[in-house]
Amino acid sequence: MTNFAPMFFRLGLFLISVFIQFSVFGNVSLSENARVSLITCGPGSDLYATFGHSAIHVYDAHSGIDKVYNYGTFDFDTPNFYTKFAQGKLNYTLAVTTFDRFIRTYQYEGRWVYRQDLNLTAEEKEAIYSFLEINALPENKDYKYDFFYDNCSTRIRDVFEKVLGDKLIYESETNDTTATFRQMIDLYLTNHPWSDLGIDLALGMPCDYEAGFRQKMFLPDYLMAGMENAVVKRDGTSEPLVVEHGIILPQHPELDTSETRSIEWIFWILFGICFLTGIFWPAERMRWFDVTFFAVAGLLGIFVLLLWFATDHTATKWNLNILWALPTWLYAAYVLARRKPITQFFKVHAIILFFVIISWMWIPQNLHDAAIPIVLALLARSWAWQKKAFRKKTI
Prior knowledge:
three-stranded antiparallel beta sheet; 10 strands; alpha+beta; seven-stranded antiparallel beta sheet
């Protein structure tokens, strides 16, 4: 049976295009020499710029159109901005600007910018332009951001797929290598070790799912590579989707995003202190150290639970860091600070941590390597206090 859905979708886009031209833009439409380009911006030194950026540029000298469509903007003046951001309820916006204004930010930050001019018919260019203009209307421009599934890069992928339909073929899909979402973002965080640790502590099992070819395009570099190797099928022939490409803005030599630094040694030192003091010092001498240590671990556990149950973030669900970052550590901190007796608590928690360590390789979440010495440090201090309680009991 013939599938009429793609035909009706393209017909709808054509009718919408005609409507937009006459009711919104007057008689302005793209000429035959108009250019539609995918713009990819390289990573920056700041955390918010670590993963790069994508945008669409529509340029037509004949019609005087020079517009960059950017799905990656948000408004700091949004009421309760930080609360909405933490809860995953912050709306992102499709912003429209000129290319000169767009490029100015990347010149200032020293980031590279790459252009890919797309092989599109006049009708396809018009359809993309109309689609973007409709999206940019006040009632349509906002959307709820999702880092993996609905961001500045996936939105652009979806625009091309909706307009081109079955004509767009990803040639690299059959040769794609396997990788999880976490493995992919880790590649960009080698120069941000503390951010890498924080992100790994905050993200749950959904990040360890294998990302398909299209899903990898949540990263601008992968969208750029996917489009570079894609083809468009028309009238039985295949043509490259990208007809011309090149660097518009080179990376500034002083911008280095390739450095690798390790912070795990800090936590191994922490474990060494906890282990040695547990052997040679009475637990009482480490009371306020342990109050702080257990309080931080307990607060981390509450943070993990809040991200899991109190937000709309899909990537923070089912976070198995909760196996060791237990909120109950707060109870231990409170009891030790008040010098109250505590029974069985440290024995139970030491047993839990022991089983977490021996089953580390089989936990269905890729926990950060720095968490191993943290868990061992908690185990060492739990053992120290349990040893103290045992001695009192035997005496």
